[in-house]
């Protein structure tokens, strides 16, 4: 039996809407670049060749699609009143048949900042003196990497695949 080939599929970070997005990306020092940063990290870590054209694809070729449908950075302030939620990233990964577009395997992983790290950051010196945002893109990146690792691990265990 020949090995299945796995290619790079669609990689996307979904636009957020609503109050959490507004609170997450508000503040003087916020750049509003969460989506761009997460997308750049995803593109950097996926080192697979791009999917071939349908004419060049074998019937057992697969594409790896990664999607971040939800993420939150972690804190907002209404005047002096703090409102906290743990930084969280959700990753949906799927292997789909290139020829048909049908999903072969699917995994969804949500990764949250550990409580100890969250509490430590929430009561930090930086926040006490308003020296910057409570949580930044740098806090989301390790969560994204762990979620991707777990999701791809689940896919590979399900599919027992090798990449070429």
Walkthrough of the structure:
The relative contact order is 0.21. The protein is elongated and about 60 Å long. Residues 27-31 have low confidence and may be disordered. It has 164 residues and is α+β, with helices and mostly antiparallel strands. The protein contains 5 helices and 6 strands, in the order βααβββββααα. It has one domain. A 4-stranded mixed beta sheet has the order 1-2-5-6. A two-stranded antiparallel sheet has the order 3-4.
List keywords for this structure.
single chain; 164 residues; 5 helices; 29% strand
Q: Brief description of this entry?
A:
This protein is 32% helix and 29% strand. The chain has 5 helices and 6 strands.
How would a crystallographer describe the biggest sheet?
A: 4 strands, mixed
Note poorly predicted spans.
Answer: 27-31
Summarize model confidence as the mean pLDDT: 80
Give the helix/strand class.
alpha+beta
How many H/I helical runs?
5
Share of residues in helices? 25-40%
Number of strands: 6
The helix-strand sequence is EHHEEEEEHHH
Terminal CA distance reads: 14 Å
> What is the approximate shape?
elongated
Q: Gyration radius, to the nearest Å? A: 19 Å
Beta-strand percent range: 25-35%
Strand order, largest beta sheet: 1-2-5-6
């Amino acid at each position: 039996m020949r090995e299945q080939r796995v290619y790079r599929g669609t990689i996307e970070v979904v636009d957020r809407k609503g109050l959490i997005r507004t609170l997450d990306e508000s503040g003087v020092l916020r750049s509003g670049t969460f989506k761009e940063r997460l997308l750049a990290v995803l593109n950097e870590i996926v080192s697979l060749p791009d999917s071939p054209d349908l004419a060049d694809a074998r019937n057992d070729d697969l594409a790896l699609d990664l999607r971040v449908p939800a993420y939150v950075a972690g804190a907002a302030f209404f005047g002096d009143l703090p409102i906290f939620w743990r930084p969280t990233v959700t990753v949906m990964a799927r292997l789909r048949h290139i020829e048909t577009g049908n999903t072969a395997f699917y995994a969804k992983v949500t990764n949250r900042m550990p409580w100890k790290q969250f509490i430590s950051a929430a009561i930090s010196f930086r926040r006490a003196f308003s020296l910057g945002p409570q949580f930044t893109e740098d806090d989301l990146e390790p969560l994204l990497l762990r979620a991707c690792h777990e999701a791809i691990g689940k896919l590979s265990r399900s599919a027992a695949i090798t990449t070429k």
